[in-house]
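for the writeup, i need someone to sanity check this before i put it in the appendix. the sequnce is what the collaborator sent (i think, or maybe the updated version? ugh). structure was predicted straight from it, no edits. if anything looks off just tell me and ill rerun, i have time this weekend
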Amino acid sequence: MSAKRVMVWCGLLLSAAVLSACGSLSSYPAAPQSAASVDHRYKIGPLDTLNIVVWRNPELSSTVTVRPDGRIATPLVEDLVAAGRNPVDLAREVETVLAKYVRDPVVTVVVSGFQGNYSDQIRIVGEAARPQAVPYRQNMTVLDVMIQAGGLTDFADGNGAVLVRGSEKGKQYSVRLKDLLKRGDISANVAVLPGDIVIVPQSWF
C-alpha cells in the first residue's frame, strides 16, 4: 500500500473517531440523580383492569376494563369516568351512585393489569430493545425503565441518551445509559418522574 493511501486511511479513521466521540457528547446538563417528588398516588388509565367489589352484594361486583375513552360501566352504574382518578376516589363515587339502590354500600376498587394514566407514563424511544411506555412507580429510576425496555440495541449511542422531563416543561438532560448498563456504573443511574421521556439515539459508528 502506498504512503499516500496509508495517509488517506489514517485520515478517515481519525475523522471517524472524532465524529463518533462527538456523537456521544451531549450539550445538555447531566440529569440529577434524585428528583424531589410528592408521594405518587396511582391514577387509573385507559385499558386498566378494575376489580370492583361491593361488600355483601356479589351480584353488583364485577371486573371491568377501562374503555379507551376512560369510562366504565358496571351493574347499576353506567358511563362513569375512571381514567385520571385514583381507586379510592372512584370507589366513593360508585358508592354514591349505588346508594340510590342499595342501603349503605361499601365499595372497594382494586386495579390490576396496570397501564396508568397517559400523562404519568414513562416513555422510552429510539434504540432501546423494546421501545414502549411503562407505568410510573414510586422511586422509579432510569435503570428500572431500561430493564423493562430490554436494554439497548447494538446500534445505540447509550451515553448520548437524553431525558426529557415533562414536569419541567420539556427540559432536557443527558443520561449515560451505556455506562450504566454496559459498564455497571451505578453513578449513572438517575431518578425518573411521571411524564418523562428517554430518547436513545443511534450511534454513528
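Strands lie at 49-54, 62-65, 71-74, 77-81, 107-112, 122-126, 132-134, 161-165, 171-175, 197-200. The radius of gyration is 24 Å.
thx in advance!!
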